[in-house]
Amino acid sequence: MACTINVNLPESSYEIQIAPSTLDKLGEYMSKLELGRKVLIVSNPTVFELYGARVVNSLEANNYQVFTCILPDGESYKNLDSIKEIYDACIEHRLERSSTLVALGGGVIGDMTGFAAATYLRGINFIQAPTTLLAMVDSSIGGKTGVNHPKGKNLIGAFYQPKFVLIDPEVLQTLPEREFRAGMAEVIKYGVIWDAEFFAQMEASTHLDSIKTISPELLETIIKLSCQAKADVVGQDEREAGLRAILNYGHTIGHAVESLTGYTEVIHGEAVGIGMVAAGEMAAELGMWTKAETERQNHLIAKAGLLTHLPKINIDEIITAIQIDKKVRDGKVRFILPTQIGKVEITNEVPTDTIRSVLNNLQRM
């Protein structure tokens, strides 16, 4: 399993390298990019204990001067206080514009490291080394960086592309099963919004809910096709002027659920799964696709071990939360709704009564 996917952009194209045992080669890949010699690795204690030495050794073997910034683990730490810690480390070690931040971890670490790179000295180099399925197939690609605000998820951020993305699928063997399932929500998203054949491949699989039971061939397909889909969309619309918005499928309701449950009761991928169920039910209620297609999607989400019902959250609080989401346009909430498996539309014409009705039904399931 080895391949290279190109993210083609007008000013900041880069490669995604997917291959086993490649964490030990990060220094070699970086040498080809002709970056400065100072590198700050940003990670969390769990990931760094597992993989930090391999990355440090690879970098030092290629004559990089390596420093580390270890941040607490979890979405609740994805805030400006953590960004300040990264800045403090950059200043302490005198990083320059030619220096590089390496994000070694999941989506939280990647988002924060990218935002720090975008804003320190008005922009320094940034490399993604994702260690979760969700980060590999989604958040490490495309340059969306940022942190949460107490009133909403990812409200503070910047578009800032990495110089390189290194994906070593072998690290998924140490990923907790809950995190693997959360990543599968983003994978299923690509099938719904972009690739009906990919969706059908996942439907045909007996298991989708565990790294231990999913076939190696399907895992290879999942990572490659998901990364290619993300690269294709971002290559056509880097800053979400139009098409890229479809990548937010399931995220409008999902972000509200995630933030209202404190980022721990329901984690990001789980919330996206719930959001996709809600979006599918809205589309069916509005006559945009069939009830049979809704059931196909919901069955696949359930097969991945994800929630298909809404936890006990105040519906009014969800509706209030989505009103301050980044996806609001001219005061109207923008939803991504499916019209068939493999195709979605962007709309801001979903009546509040429809939203409320669907959410109420999902809470009773």
UniProtKB/TrEMBL annotation:
BP-aspect Gene Ontology terms: amino acid biosynthetic process; aromatic amino acid family biosynthetic process; chorismate biosynthetic process
Keyword Amino-acid biosynthesis: yes
Domain of life: Bacteria
Pfam families documented for this protein: DHQ_synthase, DHQS_C
Record-annotated 3-dehydroquinate synthase C-terminal domain positions: 183-328
Cofactor note: Binds 1 divalent metal cation per subunit. Can use either Co(2+) or Zn(2+).
UniProt keyword list: Amino-acid biosynthesis, Aromatic amino acid biosynthesis, Cobalt, Cytoplasm, Lyase, Metal-binding, NAD, Nucleotide-binding, Zinc
Function summary: Catalyzes the conversion of 3-deoxy-D-arabino-heptulosonate 7-phosphate (DAHP) to dehydroquinate (DHQ).
Reported cofactor(s): Co(2+); Zn(2+); NAD(+)
Annotated pathway: Metabolic intermediate biosynthesis; chorismate biosynthesis; chorismate from D-erythrose 4-phosphate and phosphoenolpyruvate: step 2/7
Catalytic activity: 7-phospho-2-dehydro-3-deoxy-D-arabino-heptonate = 3-dehydroquinate + phosphate
Location (main, coarse): cytoplasm
EC number, UniProt record: 4.2.3.4
One GO cellular component term noted in the UniProt record for this chain: cytoplasm
Name the UniProt record assigns to this protein: 3-dehydroquinate synthase
Binding site for NAD(+): 73-78, 107-111, 131-132, 144, 153
Similarity-based family: Belongs to the sugar phosphate cyclases superfamily. Dehydroquinate synthase family.
GO MF terms held by the record: 3-dehydroquinate synthase activity; metal ion binding; nucleotide binding
Sites where the protein binds Zn(2+): 186, 251, 268
Subcellular location: Cytoplasm
CDD domains: DHQS (cd08195)
Record domain 3-dehydroquinate synthase N-terminal: where: 69-181
NCBIfam families: aroB
